[in-house]
């Protein structure tokens, strides 16, 4: 991805998700120093993606909803020298994120980059682990789709809008996913849906829609588990290359095997 002339008809996006930072930078999550793992992932992004058009932070920026945690993220991601936009997850303080994000230019209902519109939806519900798109977020989506013109669309949120084959996580997804699909299925410009929350890689297809979830920058969850279970896979990120003609390339990249392994007896977080 380092040859700029090769990609003159496309843009490069990077997704960072579920960093779970703390106000106290010495604090860890299930034995993982989440700030150190985030910075290690950002080092990897710098090595592999020298030219980035947009960074997407798709929720659970912090574990404790703290001002300090958000400023730690802002400092870390500023090393990428590209615009970053964030949305809250269930561990976040959405009101505080909105306040800080507007001050720092991190909050936008959507952003146009290249021949694409990236729509950023808040699926968090205060005090709940599961997610929902409130009427204001559905209206935001409607407005974004109504004014998209000839652009292609990527929709981002925190919670999973489809079944992922994990019993303990199924009730913790997007509770009104049907209202999302009713809208997206009517708009052929929508090419993909991207989320975090599940701390694992997932790729599905829904008609023309590419559905994608991505590893956390810290703890990984075991795929297909009935009960809470972590995985020894290393933290990582997702890159996306969005072409002017609507094509999309995407994959995940991880730190070396054995990096930032969670404690073996973890039963929840």
UniProtKB/TrEMBL annotation:
Presence of the UniProt keyword Phosphoprotein in the record: no
Listed Pfam families: Metallophos
Domain Calcineurin-like phosphoesterase per the UniProt entry, residue ranges: 14-200
Domain of life: Bacteria
Keywords, comma-separated and alphabetical: Hydrolase, Iron, Metal-binding
Similarity section: Belongs to the cyclic nucleotide phosphodiesterase class-III family.
PANTHER family associated with the record: CYCLIC NUCLEOTIDE PHOSPHODIESTERASE CBUA0032-RELATED, PHOSPHOHYDROLASE
Protein name: 3',5'-cyclic adenosine monophosphate phosphodiesterase CpdA
The species this protein was found in: Halopseudomonas pertucinogena
Gene that produces this protein: cpdA
